[in-house]
Automatic annotation (TrEMBL), chains A, B:
Record-annotated HTH gntR-type domain positions: 20-88
Protein name listed in UniProt: PLP-dependent aminotransferase family protein
Family: In the C-terminal section; belongs to the class-I pyridoxal-phosphate-dependent aminotransferase family.
Stored Pfam families: Aminotran_1_2 (PF00155), GntR (PF00392)
Keywords in alphabetical order: Aminotransferase, DNA-binding, Pyridoxal phosphate, Transcription, Transcription regulation, Transferase
GO molecular-function terms, A-Z: transaminase activity
Coiled-coil annotated spans: none
Length: 501, 501
């Protein structure tokens, strides 16, 4: 839809008789047109005077709606040149307001809303990718929590609560419980070739807090961070709200692949997923690892290595971590127990260079006022008693089978027509959709059938130019439900892309 | 000490024979001189050329030390005018480096350290107030966790782990578990006159995360926030790292007391403790509450109400919350279970105006990727079954007795010479020390005797001009240990302030 036909489109949809204020209807319709890309990024919207005239409504109403959209980050206005759809509009299907559906509760008054959120707050909300659904086929990134050894966990819980230790119930000293840091240092050394002392390990509540801490300690507002393109949407919000500018760097089959132009402007930080790129799944080559480390050393940048899902590989053995190759103390390694045990546990960790260990521990206590030491003590014992590695082994076998079941179901329905990539590791794979097809519409159609998948394009910096595909998480789906759920998903694909039906 | 005698002072203390590099000795001595206020804020330090000459060391060494101190926020340098001690130097005794003590591990090389922390990171570390000690007499702000009803808690834990519910083990939808939000809405309405629906309650990990979320959603870098002077040091770090400028506002016996000059410059936010001022303990008068609310309404500021320790009052009944008086949706109410149950639990909450509820829930999920729903389910049931209110009742009686035991011990030793204030509520009281006495030295002397108290001056924006006193937490000290521990503290006071011996 070109902007010039916008007023017709709006006029057909505005409904004076449905009891909703015109202000609110117009606001939602414009949001919808922008989120659905019907009003593409960069396009100009009509002047408030013109639009008010063509719709036969007050100019003040239009002005207020435009101001609200500016605050929310949907459009930006340049004095004297007009109002334009923002370049990076919010890019997730979840949370798209439905102009037709009646609202569950009254909308805040325009005046109140206009002064409500700060610029960074409005941008955060407009770009939020988080989903209300966190369980069910085919939720990516969620492990099968029903297989967690609950009895062992309860036994440990009862043991620690039977004899109360006050030091485990009060605030944590910075960095977390010593026994957990020791257990982790051992585990990471043997399984991931991470070289560190226990003091270099900082316990956090997960990757979000780990990245938040690293970014706040190591960068200032306006600093540039390289992110892989595509990358995990959740971390983008954490980076932006701390004032960082992210520069999306393309990936190829060897991982992050900075161009000469990129290399000419060294960033302050880079955030990479060497073990298997998120979400596409390729492993960063050794040559690329060496290049990155040398570049970081020469240009004094920090590398944040997100070793996401490295425990789950179904074919070849993983390469050692980037941290293990680092000889100049420039890699911050982050990991979590969210995918190996259960997400709700909220325990993650950083491994920081020795020179930074004390600052990170202090800052963590100062900023987050940590606790949960009793849970950390349980986890340390869980690891020391061998339950952690045996649980991972068990789940690796199970997930490998589920992955194969999913691949079989896909091949049975589509043959080679919709190839899957990135399935050598992790808890999801990516099914490619035909070029030019709208993966967001497919995901929305699947959600209507109670199937959660995520559109691949939403992980790219410019969703409009991104490849089309679906992230399909198989880990939390019981074996016997995989094929039926895939068929339901396929019905949604076929209904949305009729050329495949 | 004037800056002009600095080189003599340094020359006496630098020790070429002790095996520590001169760079490091000089760095620590200067830090010490600044932290101890011997080099007062704003004073000029000698040029690197002059200091190098007078100490007979290399000028490069001095230059590097100055650069390091700039990065750490101790001094700032103005081109052409020289180098000056920063206005707001780090103000906590904890973490003051000891120039004499040998370091536990090797210091990072100057080059590495120089590029290590960002400006905001260095400032955070330099100003960090967090203590390594979190348990023992007289730790302020820590409840008696040994009285927590561990059996009830274990029973609830076992109940939820016996029949695994996957939705409680995965990520949380924004805002937290519905049952806990319902239980809290009921509790806050009856006990604190907070008026809200469950949807207006956002579960967090505590006051730090609550304030972080509010500040990021409602303000932008450079915005001004009013803080009470004195106030809780921990929140100051959270505010600063998000780019806020805090304007300290004096308090009187009616609570925060903005001057005409303050009122002429409306802030974006204000952070207040109306129930009992932290750490001094006065209750904000009704007139002051009405004035604040009206001022906020007229100037469209947000008020963050920290209802800290409101459950523990030993005399009169508390006034209703500020939130309950707010008719225009400008108050963000924050509270936590850290003091009523146990700090390590890490569950707190915000109550936000209706118009902001959805944005706060989304932002919380997006920024922090919450979990711990099983623990939230346990807590909701703990509240619903009445254990929460009965535990508070029990602890209020216990803490009231301990408070009296402490007051008796103080009166027995000092009579009226060192009066205590702020003891009508909460878990600590403030013992006033004579004007001009150094409460930081007293606290350090107490710590040598294994007694933790906090110097009152550290809670003020300008510790050098602040009243002298000690925060003494009595809640976590067993009854029979209070008098002996106070006598040990008194020995430290007498040794430091001989006029009282």
């Amino acid at each position: 839809m070109r902007a010039s036909v916008l007023s017709d489109w709006l006029a057909q949809r505005l409904d004076r008789g449905n009891g909703q204020p015109i202000y609110r209807q117009l606001h939602r319709l414009l949001q919808q047109a922008i989120l659905s890309r019907e009003l593409p990024p960069g396009s100009k919207v009509p002047s408030s005077r013109l639009l008010a005239q063509e719709l036969g409504i007050g100019r003040n109403t239009v002005t207020q709606v435009y101001e609200q959209l500016v605050l929310e980050g949907y459009v930006s206005s340049a004095t004297g040149r007009g109002t334009f759809v923002a370049d990076s509009a919010p890019d997730e299907i979840v949370g798209v307001p439905d102009a037709e559906a009646p609202a569950a509760r009254p909308e805040p008054a325009p005046l109140q809303a206009r002064r409500a959120l700060s610029t960074r707050g409005a941008r955060l909300i407009a770009g939020a990718g988080v989903s209300k659904r966190q369980w069910g086929a085919f939720m990516p990134g969620v492990p099968d929590v029903t297989k967690f050894p609950a009895r062992v966990w309860s036994r440990l819980h009862n043991k620690y609560w039977r004899r109360l230790r006050p030091d485990l119930l009060t605030y944590a000293p910075g960095g977390g419980l010593a026994s957990l840091r020791h257990a982790l240092a051992d585990y990471l050394r043997t399984s991931r070739s991470v070289r560190c002392t226990p003091e270099q390990i900082i316990i956090t509540t997960g990757i979000h807090q780990s990245v938040d801490l690293a970014v706040r300690l190591l960068s200032d507002p306006g600093d540039v961070i390289w992110t892989e393109d595509p990358c995990y949407w959740g971390v983008r919000s954490v980076l932006h709200v701390s004032g960082l500018k992210s520069r999306p760097i393309a990936v190829d089959e060897e991982g992050i692949n900075p161009s000469a132009d990129d290399l000419a402007q060294p960033p302050k930080l880079m955030l990479v997923t060497p073990s298997h790129q998120y979400p596409l799944g390729m492993v960063m080559s050794l040559a690329r690892r060496r290049m990155l480390l040398e570049y970081a050393r020469q240009n004094q940048c920090w590398i944040i290595e997100d070793d996401y899902d490295s425990e789950y590989r179904y074919g070849s053995r993983p390469l050692a971590s980037l941290q293990g190759l680092d000889t100049s103390g420039q890699v911050i390694y982050v990991g979590s127990f969210g995918k190996t045990l259960f997400p709700g546990l909220r325990i993650g960790y950083l491994v920081v260079p020795e020179a930074l260990a004390e600052s990170f521990a202090t800052a963590s206590a100062e900023l987050y006022r940590e606790g949960q030491l009793l849970q950390q003590a349980m986890l340390a014992e869980f690891i020391a008693e061998g339950h952690f590695t045996s649980h991972i082994r068990k789940m690796r076998t199970l997930y490998g089978q589920r992955r194969q079941t999913l691949l079989d179901a896909a091949a049975h329905r589509y043959g080679d027509a919709l190839p899957a990539v990135g399935g050598d590791a992790g808890l999801h794979l990516v099914m490619q959709l035909p070029d030019g097809s709208d993966d967001r519409r497919v995901a929305a159609a699947a959600l209507e059938r109670n199937i959660v998948v995520r559109p691949l394009s939403g992980y790219y910096a410019q969703p409009g130019l991104a490849p089309s595909g679906l992230l399909i998480g198989y880990a939390c789906v019981p074996d016997e439900e995989i094929a039926p759920a895939f068929n339901t998903l396929a019905d949604a694909i076929d209904a949305t892309l009729p050329e495949f039906a």
